Structure formats: structure tokens, C-alpha cells
Amino acid sequence: MNPVVHFEMSYEDKQRMADFYTKAFGWKTNMLGPEMGNYVTAETTETDENRMVKTPGAINGGFYQAQPERKGVSVVIAVNDIQEAMKNVIAAGGTITGGSQGPDKVDDIPGVGLYVGMIDTEGNNVALLQPHKM
Fold first, then answer.
1. Fold match between domain 1-70 and domain 79-134
2. What is the reported pTM?
3. How far apart are CA 13 and CA 36, in angstroms?
């Protein structure tokens, strides 16, 4: 099986969003710069020295700048082989939306892994991640 390992949500105002989740739930946020798409990581549970969650079943996440075509909540599914998973998504009726460089482009997130967006058969935004250590 390929587990859900990360969540993503959009933001309109990143400082307002960070303040909300910190105050409401005690999450730790880290605002990345324009070189990382102004992404904001969210630590919802304690991690070890390799940034892996210590509590089985818990996940961390992140926030991205809302865009007209991409707003809301999505999950990230870990896969062993991103190219194979992309083929499986298409064969099952889904669509690969790609990474930050465009359709069918896979992003290589430094220190994390290979990442690509997709849309399932129900119109949900989902992402695939092949962690570097897999």
C-alpha cells in the first residue's frame, strides 16, 4: 500500500494562516522563501532527527499560495516509483497535473523527494511523493 504521508492546504494570507494554526492548535510553521514557492511547512507532531514523525499514523503538512485552479485541501501519497505511479494514475482514469515547472513535470524537492500533482477521478487534487530514501 501507498500511505498518506503529508497534507497540503492553500492560504490567501500566509501570516494570518500561520498565526491561526499556531494559536488554535499549537502547530509550528516555517515560512520558506520565493525559491521554494513561498511554501509554509507545518509541524503538527514531533519529528526525529530525520524529520520523520515519532507518532505512528500522524502526519505533518504544508501550505501553498492559493491559485484559482488550485485551492483547498489535498493529501500527499508516498510511492516507491513516481514514474510507475503516474502511469497507474492515468490508467485508472486520473490526470497528472505536474509540478511547479508545468504539466507532466516532476519536481525534485531538496532533501525531500520527487513530487508531482494529480487529479483523481472525482476531481480531488492529490500529490504523489517518492521520498529520496525510498
1. yes
2. 0.79
3. 17
| Residue 62 and residue 6 in contact, taking contact as beta carbons nearer than 8 Å | yes
Q: For 79-134, CATH number?
A: 3.10.180.10
Question: pLDDT tens digits for 57-82?
Answer: 899 999 999 887 777 788 999 999 99
The structural domains of the chain, with segments of one domain joined by +, span: 1-70, 79-134
Domain 1-70: give its CATH code: 3.10.180.10
Dump pLDDT digits (tens) for 82-94.
999 999 999 999 9
